């Protein structure tokens, strides 16, 4: 392990679950950040308070071309680790790093409607820590328990600080019925240092069903009371959402007959590149946690 | 089996799943039905079309006294078949026939705010086919797959016709997060004759996790397209809902930290009392399907 880096957010170190203070800002940039698509002060304040923002239909025009790219990709990736399959039904659940396999999707990550906001929230140049497509098939997509992404990225990938944000696009409608993302507003302000330790090669199991790093009932209840309830990320295809790296979120089963499909980009500040994992274990593979911190350059104008 | 009774709705007879026509009316009574709390014509039309109606906060004053009765009952019923427990966590999931064990809850079933509507919808005197409390504990209450209650009551209990309705009271908030009831509006107009046959003593397993009598993806999709989407029964404690016996419904996991608790009364027309089960098997026990068709007499005024 790299002894230069202090562990600001110890977790799964064998002790009991406990709350630790967040020592990082939520919003690292300013409202007058360059970029035509940066958030205004009111939107920044809302993100700071709630830990997420929903921009209804903001990139509607990208949905059809992205879906087309994904269709091509399914064939291309058969048998590769970047493809994750449902434990029961064997249906497609995730594609990791789709921007490696599609030039178009790489451009989507650089579209100023996304990248202006990511650079503003993190107050820095940014790179992609991870990207993925999550498909929850109708009637078969399973629930995912509550978790903070940052807790995993910190422990398993060595991401030092909370200076990352996920920007994601709804490729289908996300409604109360098809397994939408639920969030606890305000939960990003509290860090849950989790009990237990990390099993070796945890990712092979946790991408299907996470167990390490999930809160117990009392912790969850405290967060919900503290944060003032629960929220659902509902919207039509083309809705753009940003959620903070430490916000507690989860999702129920898809009970609808239609899929819930989303494309996620995890943007990380180039000053927050991953070190040795704080678990002391070997790093996860690059398709889950990139170590190439070369900054993304915004496209001059929105993708057509 | 009672050979007098024609099987209008054969299901699980060993063939393929298929759609059969509903031969019964949805609304059996009239808008000018006696009773201060009967539905008006607009409400009746909506029930006829959608197969359910939500009366927000209609019996708010009953919630606290019912909750008090349930607390007492948990102790009283330990070890009895009327108590159903979560498969994984062993927590309370259901109490069957609470009106057997509480005089107060028996009066709730006779409250004119419920009974006037049940008698009107069924156009007859009614009795209780079944009553139950369903608790979905926070973080632990599990999903329940899509099903028509009538399909089970017909096959396993010998209920001849679609002349029953469930009236139920939200004892906690029902929101998108705590495993609410989802319904397919209009699905009560179609009868899904299910594939397969009924395992012996199916109820012992099906109360925990139903498998027989659930639609496949194509059937579900057809219903959702035909009926125009999905609906959630959301509301504050004390909200009263009526849903038709053949409406397709299900519910997701409870991801919230707080329970979702509802009290259900299944009202059946006294002309529609149960015969021998159409499966040809022995009837389910009385706590699941009463054979005592003595009519409920409405209280003179709402419970205090």
TrEMBL record, chains A, B:
Residues 285-304 are annotated as: Disordered. The keyword Oxidoreductase applies. Keywords: Dioxygenase, Iron, Metal-binding, Oxidoreductase. Its cofactor is Fe(2+). The keyword Transcription regulation does not apply. One of its GO terms (molecular function) is iron ion binding. SUPFAM superfamilies: Clavaminate synthase-like. Its EC number is 1.14.11.55. It holds the Pfam family PhyH. It catalyses: L-ectoine + 2-oxoglutarate + O2 = 5-hydroxyectoine + succinate + CO2. Homodimer. Belongs to the PhyH family. EctD subfamily. Involved in the biosynthesis of 5-hydroxyectoine, called compatible solute, which helps organisms to survive extreme osmotic stress by acting as a highly soluble organic osmolyte. Catalyzes the 2-oxoglutarate-dependent selective hydroxylation of L-ectoine to yield (4S,5S)-5-hydroxyectoine. This is Ectoine hydroxylase. It comes from Marinospirillum celere.
């Amino acid at each position: 392990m790299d002894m230069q880096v202090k562990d600001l957010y110890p977790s799964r170190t064998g002790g009991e679950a406990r709350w630790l203070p967040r020592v990082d800002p939520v919003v690292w940039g300013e409202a007058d950040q360059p970029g035509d698509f940066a958030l205004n002060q009111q939107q920044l304040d809302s993100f700071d308070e709630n830990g997420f923002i929903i921009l209804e239909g903001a990139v509607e025009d990208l949905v059809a071309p992205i879906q087309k790219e994904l269709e091509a990709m399914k064939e291309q990736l058969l048998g590769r680790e970047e493809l994750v399959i449902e434990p029961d039904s064997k249906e497609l659940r995730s594609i990791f790093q789709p921007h490696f396999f599609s030039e178009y999707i790489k451009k989507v990550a650089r579209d100023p409607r996304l990248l202006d906001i990511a650079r503003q929230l993190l107050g820095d140049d940014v790179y992609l820590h991870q990207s993925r497509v999550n498909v929850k098939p109708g009637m078969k997509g399973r629930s995912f328990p509550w978790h903070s992404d940052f807790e995993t990225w910190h422990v398993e990938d060595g991401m030092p600080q909370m200076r990352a944000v996920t920007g994601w696009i709804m490729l289908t409608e996300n409604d109360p019925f098809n397994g939408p993302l639920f969030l606890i507003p305000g939960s990003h302000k509290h860090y849950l240092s989790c009990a237990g330790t990390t099993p070796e090669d945890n990712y092979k199991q946790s991408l299907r069903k996470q167990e390490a790093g999930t809160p117990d009932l009392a912790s969850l209840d405290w967060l919900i009371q503290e944060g003032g309830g629960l929220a659902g990320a509902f919207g039509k295809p083309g809705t753009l959402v940003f959620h903070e790296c430490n916000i507690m979120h989860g999702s129920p089963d898809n009970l609808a007959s239609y899929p819930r499909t989303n494309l996620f980009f995890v943007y990380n500040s180039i000053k927050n590149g991953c070190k040795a994992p704080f678990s002391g274990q070997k790093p996860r593979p690059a398709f889950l946690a990139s170590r190439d911190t070369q900054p993304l350059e915004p496209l001059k104008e929105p993708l057509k």
